[in-house]
Design brief:
The chain has nine helices and no strands. It is mainly alpha-helical and 185 residues long. It folds into two domains: 70 residues; 115 residues, no CATH class. Helix 4 runs antiparallel to helix 6 and helix 6 runs antiparallel to helix 8. It is globular. The relative contact order is 0.09.
Length: 185
């Protein structure tokens, strides 16, 4: 269910673009993102910061795209989002001396500090990669190619998350370790 919820705005955007144009697709994306955010709020009773930022950027850049009839705004929104996420992780890590990934996931995952730091760095690099590749496609390719990239480019996060899962699984406490820690309590 969560996977469908995550992907339905981009699928509706892609379908609307193929049936109409970038402006119709942008309006559909805006509506789908508002609906997606409302459903997440209904299920979880709250919104994570990323959901709020995504909603703000989609509605803001979507509105600029529609009002100014300039597709560049919606095409550059992912670059801004990914760059902002990379910067937030970097600022938190190097200036605030906090690891946001550990703060968000530390209750669910017991990992050594160096692993959390490597995960944080890999997410920063991933976000910069995604920002760069979106900027490249948005700038040098047609809108049609960019829309196709937005759909098929979802392979990047899926592969990245799969690789992260494999990496993390190697560092999780073994069942014997977890049982020994429970016995100590």
């Amino acid at each position: 269910m969560k996977l469908i919820l995550d992907f339905f705005p981009i699928l509706l955007f892609f379908g609307a673009y193929k049936m109409a144009d970038i402006y119709t697709a942008t309006a559909v994306l805006m509506g789908a993102t508002v609906l997606q955010t409302a459903i997440i709020y209904k299920i979880d009773g709250k919104l994570q910061t990323l959901h709020k930022i995504t909603l703000l950027l989609v509605v803001g850049f979507g509105a600029l795209t529609l009002v100014l009839q300039d597709e560049r705004f919606i095409k550059w929104k992912p670059t801004l989002l990914y760059t902002g996420l990379a910067m937030a992780l970097a600022i938190a890590h190097w200036w605030m001396k906090k690891n946001f990934l550990h703060l968000l996931l530390g209750q669910q995952l017991q990992l050594p500090a160096p692993v959390w730091n490597r995960l944080n760095l890999s997410w920063m690099l991933y976000f910069l990669f995604m920002a760069s590749i979106n900027a490249y496609v948005a700038h040098y390719f047609s809108t049609e190619a960019w829309v196709n990239f937005k759909l098929w480019g979802y392979a990047f996060p899926l592969v990245f998350i799969l690789l992260q899962g494999i990496y993390v699984s190697r560092h999780l406490p073994k069942d014997d370790d977890a049982a020994a820690q429970v016995d100590k309590k």
